[in-house]
């Protein structure tokens, strides 16, 4: 798939006016979901791997990290989309306020890649567990294994049944589209951050492969955020932004977990400080998840989770039709 930057999977995010109506049909949702997929997949496709040379990749290696709860090393990479490239995207897509912005900052992305054995054992996880946790229950599970996530909220959900997108010989189905927010705890004296996102997920029919794309949501009405203008307001959260692309697939060598993100915590926290911390933070997520899933197995919860996730995981692998998505997800 040819790499082409687009207007949606960007740190500047998506605005309320760009969102589909809540009663949008599958036909009406397809153009947006297709655009998101065509932007996200090629952006992470050329990350260095056993099949992709680092010399032809757009991603620069930042080393690897080993963790006590992961048998697999975690490789970290960096990539920058220049201000010139972003300005061209904004101009081509007639994005108000961006194409003529006097100072458009470059987008710095960090990516991690790890390959895990397909097994419900210590130090790794089974495909059914990956599918259950990240395709079906992404926000809930992230809240469970990430200590800094204080809460999550589902604000809006679209019915994507019937949407299928064909790209390079693969059919992406089992779509979900949700508007969500999460509140993250920050160290004192910084205020907590609220991250509103538009989340799209899809699986390749007949294969063990799925993607989760989260796009920063801007100027979205109806979100339940207690936001302040900055760090100085007592009791107020600061609205921050992140956009991410996450893909899990059976690579033939194991379960490949790739996650790329660009973010801005806003407030008084300098961007250079954020860029220094982010590579280590995203790599640590692998360790935290595998520690969490191992604990769940010991508590006897992993068996049910594996069975439930296995049904959908096997359906997708064998090419069966996926079940319809739930109409509502309840967050604690």
Structural features, described:
The protein has one domain (14-318): START domain (Alpha-D-Glucose-1,6-Bisphosphate, Chain A, domain 4). 28% of the residues lie in helices and 32% in strands. The protein has helices at 26-45, 83-92, 127-136, 138-145, 271-298, 302-318; strands at residues 14-15, 60-67, 70-81, 107-116, 149-158, 165-167, 170-184, 193-204, 209-218, 227-228, 237-239, 241-250, 255-264. Residues 226-234 and 302-332 have low confidence and may be disordered. It comes from Hapsidospora chrysogenum (strain ATCC 11550 / CBS 779.69 / DSM 880 / IAM 14645 / JCM 23072 / IMI 49137) (Acremonium chrysogenum). Residues 301-332 are annotated as: Disordered. This is DUF3074 domain-containing protein.
Mean pLDDT: 87
Taking Cα atoms only, what radius of gyration do you get, to the nearest Å? 19 Å
* Number of structurally distinct domains: 1
Give, in order, the helices and strands.
EHEEHEHHEEEEEEEEEHH
CATH architectural label: 2-Layer Sandwich
Largest sheet: 13 strands, mixed
Please report the first level of CATH classification, the CATH class: Alpha Beta
Briefly note the CATH topology name. Alpha-D-Glucose-1,6-Bisphosphate, Chain A, domain 4
Oligomer: single chain
Low-confidence stretches: 226-234, 302-332
